[in-house]
Amino acid sequence: MLHSLAYQEPSPFAGQRVLVVGSGNSAVQIAVELADVAHVTLAARTQLHLAPQRPLGRDIHDWLTWARVDQLTLGHLRRLLSPRTVFDPGRYRAAFHAGKLDQRRMFPRFMAGGVVWPDGQEELVDAVIFATGYRADLDFLRGTGALDGLGEPVQRLWVSRTVPGLYFVGLSG
């Protein structure tokens, strides 16, 4: 078992049965990459929602900038976009349709060497990768005026709008 943070590349999993837990970008990216060398199942509590990375021939980020979504705080942006939306660069949906990997509802429990699915079916797996997300720990900024009431950075394009000289490097802009 490992978290997606520790995952580096698919070759150590060649020929194995791998369970990837999660339904976000990291989970799908890892699952599709692994599907070239392993038997992969993606387990998630919610249904996977794929959206094209390049609708109408332009990158989604261009559209978001055009719509001025880049000026919203992270809290507002999270309410606007579903956290379950995965932007597909073109190969994710194809991998699912080609049967290279499958998706199942989250398993309720582990058993020795595997998992038990909601229907009671037991399945042995060689590896489990938890791609359950990352969350920035910004609690140390509470009380500085850098965060809004939801604990989200008050920023635009990584620059704090409330604390001069503060930048949010590595966070969504």
From TrEMBL:
Molecular-function annotations in GO: flavin adenine dinucleotide binding; N,N-dimethylaniline monooxygenase activity; NADP binding
| Signal sequence, renumbered to the chain | none
Q: What is this protein called?
A: Monooxygenase
SUPFAM superfamilies, alphabetized: FAD/NAD(P)-binding domain
Mind telling me which InterPro entries this protein's record contains? Auxin_biosynth/cation_transpt (IPR050982), FAD/NAD-bd_sf (IPR036188), Flavin_mOase-like (IPR020946)
Task: Name any one Pfam family assigned in the record.
Answer: FMO-like
Q: Which UniProt keywords apply?
A: FAD, Flavoprotein, Oxidoreductase
